[in-house]
């Protein structure tokens, strides 16, 4: 639950104003943000009602693929308010098999965040696209490793078995580094070192810079948790150097995201922001700050990265893209408890009447 609930409610109120958009495809994003905000506040009644509004807005899009893409995101807060069975039914109703896998993965991640690990693993088992099932398993382990979950309550055995069955070298190694962090937190030092060393073996096989950068970043997090600062500095430096040289926009963003988290956990925030600034596409920047705000190791980088993105927003030609980016920044700031900054970003949404009303809501708090 967020601190300063009155300010957080004001943030939700400001978001509510921005939901009055002409295009349902834009309105649904804001409604999802509102639902997630209320859920984090523990206001399940309002979160539940907002989920219904988001679902209706998604259905109003009138284009099946557009509706399905939004439903992938809606099933998360839907699960968060206790409507898991409905969320699973909605996921299975999606016609696109990849979106269906993403929706089930989103549900599993939410269940894990709520501590329902048996249910989360059962949901992962529903994903019939093998590679996506593996990716969500690794993301689940990453979330558990980084986000304040009671590590003694994490079923390490079943998660380890799931990771050991992965044939994809990169995903297996990433999972092992995250499990190493969990085991180090639990005080299982020998097991953590074993997992870290197993993950490092992937470097003998992987040759692409973006893959090696991600492995080094994971190894850096494990080394930091184990208290091996010399090894941490070496791995974090290697991750940053490799990530900055990746050419593919998609792969560069993933590698930089992992490297930024590795740098930030050791206090190298300035270098982390410099590295993150190499992601120049506005949508990619929005995805990056969203991902980093969900990782406790990267929280120190979120506020300065938000400032960098907001400067880039001012130079973008399309209002819709500007507002989409501002919404992503506001959500990221809210996740790291920068509520006042988040509300100010919402107040800058570019409909004059909405901006004035949002700002009045904020000042009234």
UniProtKB/TrEMBL annotation:
Gene3D superfamilies: Tetratricopeptide repeat domain. InterPro entries: TPR-like_helical_dom_sf. It comes from the Bacteria. This is Uncharacterized protein. The lineage of its organism: Bacteria, Pseudomonadati, Pseudomonadota, Alphaproteobacteria, Iodidimonadales.
